[in-house]
Amino acid sequence: MNSEKRKLEYGEVTKIACGDMNIRVYDTKDAIDDRVIILDKDGRGVVVELPAFRRNIEELAHYLEDENVTIEGKLVSYHAAGSSFLPDVKNYLTESAAKYNSTGGGAALIGNFAKAFGPEFDSSAVGSGEDLQGGEFEIAGIGLTIIPNGDAFEITIPDAKAVYMHMLGHDCHSIIAGPAHADAVIAGLQKYLDDGFELFLSAHYGPEDRSDVQTKISYIEGLKDIAARCSSAEEFSDAVKERYPGYSGENYLRMTAGMFFPQ
User: Where are the alpha helices (DSSP H) in 75-153?
Assistant: First the structure.
């Protein structure tokens, strides 16, 4: 993967050349470890997800201006807070994403973050825009495939053999809502591997490759195995931390434990 990094005042951008297209991953380095994905070709671009903290909103807008990238659309899936980012650019959401961010789990998270971080967090959320349907979609001269799911949507970028999803991370815990959800996540990741995708992008981790995805599949299979041997959330959490020492995202593990072993 041919990439270069540029440090900004607050965050950092990883730029990956994919033929005549660039994929840029803006690591906000904010308090909730957000990433924003920028796809651009010939000076035209689209962003996937939004920065939510005001200093990152300003920084990313200035970066795009410096790089002479004109954004033609904002694809809002799981991260709708930060509506002040490029306010004149059209928003695109699936029906599922609009519900998730206006009345569902996304809205609840935004409310919690607003209380935790105060005015530095832009809690104004994008809840509507151009309605995205599943299937092929082109914007800024870039072909995408929109894949709606129960919460929001994932995206494939065929020309770059790339996938965007909400959470991945080969050495961090993820939110897995029980055995059935684990099976669904494994099946989805395995299908991307079987379909030949090579670059995996997510909203809380840097760019990853096929081996990283296989590591993640093994981790989720491990969660199922551990859960089958445990009788409580506490026992499960302790066993997971013992098998996967050094993994980040312990808050996600607590959530997973509660879903495998609800009170």
Answer: 95-102, 105-117
